[in-house]
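Hi everyone,

Forwarding the result from last night's run.
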Amino acid sequence: MSRPTDLVQGTLDLLILKIVALEPAHGWAIAHRIRQMSGEVLQVGQGALYPALHKLEQNGWICSEWAVSDNNRKAKYYTLTRAGKKALEHESAEWERLAGAISAIVRAV
């Protein structure tokens, strides 16, 4: 049986793109925002987050830049690119389609 914190394969990319679309953020802030916005249900560890960020950057969907964080530390801030915005729209539509299909099955009598 899956745990509430298990993410469906591929959803982490979508969540990261959505968070970064809201505002540029560094890795810890992205993980914190996912946890916060999911009502403490979803928790993303560094072992999953940073490889996903690297992959999204390689795909050209996000870009990064070093800056000073709120606590005066150097941090890599991620921003959504134009290609990332298109990917977010596509991934969001695919998620809605998939979630609707799963819901239809789960709600069947």
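The chain has one domain: 11-106.

Cheers,
N.
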